[in-house]
Design a protein that fits this description.
By secondary structure, this protein is of the alpha+beta class. It folds into five domains: 170 residues, Rossmann fold (3-Layer(aba) Sandwich); 81 residues, Translation factors (Elongation Factor Tu (Ef-tu), domain 3), CATH 2.40.30.10; 88 residues, Translation factors (Elongation Factor Tu (Ef-tu), domain 3, Beta Barrel); 191 residues, no CATH class; 123 residues, Arc Repressor Mutant, subunit A (Orthogonal Bundle). 34% of the residues lie in helices and 25% in strands. The protein has 20 helices and 33 strands. A six-stranded mixed β-sheet has the order 2-3-1-4-5-6, sandwiched between helices. Strands 18-21-20-19-22-23 form a six-stranded antiparallel β-barrel. A five-stranded antiparallel β-sheet has the order 8-9-16-13-14, with no helix packed on it. About 6% of the residues have low confidence. Bound molecules: guanosine-5'-triphosphate (GTP) and magnesium ion. The site of guanosine-5'-triphosphate has 21 residues, from helix 1.
Length: 682
């Protein structure tokens, strides 16, 4: 019969000496208590891994120690399991670590399992009965409430058939893990094997890896290449999420690799000390959890002392949950949706646990309402990869994010990401810009509102102007002048950039800088591609109009007082009567008996109205003059094959002072080109 490997890992759980290791041995033939000290003391200390063939399906089993001193090892082993075998000895019944292991499994999100009631050979049948009832009562309300309780003897084999059938049903009920996501293995242990060098064992939490791929060990940031792989003790070409794997990476020193390290690829992950999480305190916990409580924080296979800061007033009550930020004494590598457990320092017991939302650069202010709103939204989004991707785009800096940035933050490989992005575009949630960049529809709407605010502010400051230029609109948007900052719209779209959008190396270098956070409310510069995508939309929707190359609100009309109107007319007439020898600002001021700044203002207005053309600094011509000059120039060149520059003044019946700047102007705007002393058409 051909054996199929399923990406399913089961784990034992239960109090010390209840027969976990004996059961695994009976089931698989493997003695997972392989250490000398384990043999001497007759108890498990380290995790044991055993391949287990159930009918024609092979799954992995992790055997955990039951001793209360090794709960942290149990947590490391239980991370990444898909189903459990809760082992309870019939003589003892439910004991402290039966409870604690159950709590941990629940907090780690395990949903499937069966119960092995061991040592039935050592008790009278009545005890088996009462123990079963006792266990049933204990499991009420837990994820194992309907799980079968199977009496078994690891010594005589009694009850094995029924147990085996139940195990088969358990495996069938579990959907094997897929190989999606960025490859990542929380390191279980490392050792050296003769002829191979360093071998690192663990169960990949996500993704898959092929022999030959480059890997990185964190937090050491050591690169290495995967030379060979064993999965469930057999040679393989790849290792996938959920498989007990031994990775051979000769470049690393096995003594420098320890449990809690992480093996991954590329620069998706980095060690961090601040994490935003959602924590649930266990129902049966006696005391409230106070703000700034000191705990042990377990995630993946890592364990570190940590301080828990609550995002709520007052302490956290047993059975309740809230958003927290934790500061870890040692940097840890974790990603969105990873589970974690917190335990008290002394005496040690499990307090609660939950889901990691993501790494954060620095401590967030819990008194800031915008922050509270934003993290609540983030917590909600992170639960579903598609929502989180939408969220990542929505909160991107400069209002747009490219595929790589989204991929880094969401920890999703480009291929999987592309499919979700396409879905989000299809659903009208994201707008694609050029170059695989996206902006969110809500962001787009806010930006458009903000742009209208900038235009409105410009009109009230310069009522005589037909409108604002594109470049100026873009700069003023980014400067945030005269308009309320986007954050005050209360939508929390100001980016709180997560630490992980930075490449790993840079993240460490930036550690020092992280102490000085980006100030909330500082307007973000608007990316040109976002602006250029939105502007045509605003024009075609009639929210903005373009007149004489300037942008205005549709209802805007240029406004002047009557004296100003008169001056505008007079100045224009003056230019019209001196087509090719136009007056300079000072000359106009003298002639009109007006102040120079006022004249400058009038000249600017006439330019905006396109009645005058600025040919050079302080040299303006009437638009008609420019048109006529151009006509004469073009027809002369066409007839004569070129124009000697010095002769242009004769064509216009003017002096060199005016003719040369005009020629330069025509070169600049692309009518002519200059070759030596001659002009040709471009
Ligand atoms: N009579 C009897 N003894 C058993 C049975 N299962 C295990 N034992 C004995 O109980 C002792 C402990 O068994 P283990 O399998 O090491 O227990 P464990 O749960 O793995 O213990 P830890 O790993 O230290 O938590 C050993 O001496 C076993 O021989 C059983 O079904 N019947
Ligand atoms: Mg054991």
């Amino acid at each position: 019969m051909e054996v199929q490997q399923h990406n399913v890992t089961l784990g034992t759980a239960g109090h010390i000496d209840h027969g976990k290791t004996a059961l695994v041995k009976l089931l698989t033939g493997c003695d997972t208590d392989r250490l000398k000290i384990e043999k001497e003391r007759g108890m498990s200390i380290e995790l044991g891994f055993a391949p287990c063939i159930i009918s024609d399906i092979e799954v992995g089993i992790v055997d955990v120690p039951g001793h209360e001193n090794f709960v942290k090892t149990m947590v490391a082993g239980a991370t990444g399991i898909d189903g459990c075998i809760l082992v309870v000895a019939a003589d003892d019944g439910v004991m402290p670590q039966t409870r604690e292991h159950m709590d941990i499994l629940t907090l780690l999100g395990v949903e499937h399992g069966i119960v092995a009631l061991t040592k039935v050979d050592a008790v009278p049948p009545e005890r088996t009965q009462t123990a079963t009832q006792e266990i049933r009562g204990f499991l009420t309300g837990t994820f194992l409430q309907d799980a079968p309780i199977l009496p078994i003897s690891n010594i005589t084999g009694q009850g094995f058939e029924e147990f085996y059938e139940a195990l088969k049903a358990l495996v069938a009920a579990i959907t094997p893990k897929t190989a999606q996501g960025i490859f990542r293995v929380p390191v279980e242990r490392a050792f050296s094997a003769k002829g191979y060098g360093t071998i690192v064992a663990g169960i990949p939490a996500c993704g898959s890896v092929e022999v030959g791929e480059e890997l990185v060990l964190l937090p050491q940031m050591a690169k290495g290449r995967l030379r060979s792989v064993q999965v469930y003790g057999r040679d393989s070409t790849r290792a996938m999420a959920g498989q007990c794997a031994a990775l051979n990476i000769p470049q690393w020193d096995h003594k420098a690799v320890e449990r809690g390290n992480v093996i991954t690829i590329s620069d998706y992950f980095a060690p961090h000390q601040w994490y935003l999480c959602e924590l649930k305190l266990l129902d049966q916990e006696k005391a409230d959890l106070k703000n700034a409580a000191q705990v042990k924080f377990h995630t993946g296979t890592s364990e570190t002392p940590a301080s828990v800061y609550l995002f709520q007033e007052g302490a956290l009550k047993p059975g309740r949950q809230c958003l927290i930020q934790v500061f870890l004494d040692h940097p840890v590598i974790a990603g969105p949706r990873d589970h974690f457990i917190i335990r008290s320092l002394s005496p040690t017991r499990t307090l609660g646990g939950g889901i990691i939302i993501e790494a954060i650069e620095k401590r967030l202010k819990r008194t800031n309402l915008d922050v509270l709103k934003e993290i609540a939204e983030r917590a909600k989004a992170v639960a579903r990869p598609r929502d989180f991707i939408e969220y990542c785009v929505k909160t991107a800096e400069a209002f747009a994010a490219d595929e790589r940035q989204i991929s880094l933050r969401s920890k999703m490989p480009p291929k999987e990401l592309a499919a979700l992005l396409a879905e989000l575009v299809q659903a009208g949630r994201l707008l694609p810009l050029s170059g695989k960049t996206y902006t969110h529809v809500d962001t787009a709407e806010h930006v458009q509102q903000h742009l209208l605010d900038v235009v409105r502010a410009f009109h009230s400051k310069r009522p005589e102007s037909p409108g604002i230029g594109r470049e100026q609109l873009l700069t003023e948007f980014s400067r945030g002048e005269g308009v309320p900052p986007l954050s005050s719209r209360g939508e929390g779209i100001l980016p709180l950039r997560p630490a992980d959008t930075l490449p790993a190396q840079k993240q460490l270098e930036d550690k020092a800088k992280m102490a000085s956070p980006r100030k909330g409310g500082t307007p973000s510069p608007l990316r040109k591609d976002v602006f250029e995508t939105l502007l045509p939309r605003m024009l075609s929707a009639g929210r903005l109009v373009e007149r004489k190359g300037l942008l205005a609100l549709p209802e805007h009309r240029e406004q002047f007082n009557s004296a100003e109107q008169q001056l505008l007319q007079n100045v224009e007439t003056l230019f019209r009567s001196h087509l090719f020898d136009p007056p300079g600002p000072q000359e106009i001021a003298d002639q009109m008996r007006a102040a120079l700044p006022q004249v400058q203002r009038v000249l600017r207005i006439l330019t905006e109205q396109q009645k005058l053309v600025r040919v050079d600094q302080d040299l303006l011509f009437h638009a008609e003059a420019v048109t006529t000059a151009k006509e004469r120039l073009v027809s002369h060149i066409q007839q004569n094959g070129g124009l000697e520059s010095v002769k242009f003044k004769y064509l216009l019946d003017t002096s060199r002072k005016y003719a040369i700047p005009l020629l330069d102007y025509f070169d600049k705007i692309g009518v002519t080109r200059r070759v030596g002393y001659t002009r040709h058409l471009k």
